Amino acid sequence: MKRKQFLLFFSALLTSFFLALGLRLINPAPAYANADVLVSAAASLKEVMTEIKPLYQKTHSDVNLTFNFGASGALLQQIEQGAPADIFISAAKRQMDSLDQKGALVPGTRKNLANNQLVLIVPQGSRAVTSFTSLKQPEIRRIAIGEPRSVPAGQYAQQVLQKLNLWNAVKPKLVYANNVRQVLAAVESGNVDAGFVYMTDAKISNKVKVVVIAENSYHSPIVYPMAVLKRSKNMGAAKAFVQYLSGSQAKSVLRKYGFIVSN
Questions:
Q1: How do residues 121-151 score in pLDDT, each as one tens digit?
Q2: Which of 118, 123, 132, 261 is nearest to 198 (CA)?
Q3: pLDDT, tens digit (0-9, with 9 covering 90-100), for 8-67
Q4: Cβ distance 31 to 236 under 8 Å?
Q5: Do 88 and 172 lie in a common domain?
Q6: Are 100 and 141 found together in one domain?
């Protein structure tokens, strides 16, 4: 009798084991459990990513997201020099194209996250600047833009000023910043008379006002491409986060901060 009971118990134990194994094969645990994912992202995405992080980790608590924000050109340089990063999100195509041409991106992971607009801002209460042309006025002495060689917003600003034949006239007045947030801070403090930032930057500040929005035809398309880097040590987790950023929840946050995203 004891032998029969033992066989029944052993049979039930085997059944439970194979059932559990079958469920695991159907719903395998993520290959990226307890993964650290480092995202190098354009400075203008700071508020968006800060809000997205806890939303993502509600359903991916086993993934630790860390962000490195800065000018896209500076981030590109860091990556090219070997700095660790799993995902790159640029504020312009140029930096992403550079990595793509060098074969540094995981094929099929490059996507456009969002678009933006370039705006001319002044300190709240200022009335001296009313248009792009008014930047030539002698009372306008300091205009902040991102360094065009490394800051996409500065590159776009240069394109706008050249398109309107204002570049040579205002170039002596330009104050160059390391990223677009430094431009915003300079205008907020009143240290400059005006500055070029993204619409999304202007929206987060109550110390500045938008004078004019640059027409899209004045500059290259302001697009934020993202991709997983081949050097990633947690490629599965990195791919999953890029996929999430293309989804409805992330798009809702992007829209909230003024980014332009597809439906």
A1: 999 999 999 999 999 999 999 999 999 999 9
A2: 118
A3: 544 544 454 444 444 444 444 455 667 899 999 999 999 999 999 999 999 999 999 999
A4: yes
A5: no
A6: no
- Indicate whether 249 belongs to any domain: yes
The dihedrals phi and psi of 239, each to the nearest 5 degrees, come to -60, -40
How far are the Cα atoms of 13, 38, 129, 139 from residue 135, in angstroms, in the given order?
Answer: 80, 40, 7, 9
Q: Answer whether residue 5 shows pLDDT above 80.
A: no
Task: List the domain range (segments joined by +) for residue 208.
Answer: 118-218
Taking a C-beta distance cutoff of 8 angstroms, is the pair 145, 177 a contact?
yes
Q: Pick from 31, 34, 37: which is nearest to 232 by CA?
A: 37
Q: How far is CA 157 from CA 88, 106, 168, in A?
A: 23, 31, 13
CB 245 within 8 A of CB 113: yes
Structure tokens at 39: 């995202």
Query: What are the φ and ψ backbone dihedral angles of 198, each rounded to 5 degrees?
Result: -80, 155
Q: For residue range 156-193, list pLDDT tens digits in order.
A: 999 999 999 999 999 999 999 999 999 999 999 999 99
Task: Specify the 3-state DSSP secondary structure of 105.
Answer: strand
DSSP-based three-state secondary structure for 98: helix
Please name the amino acid found at residue 191: N
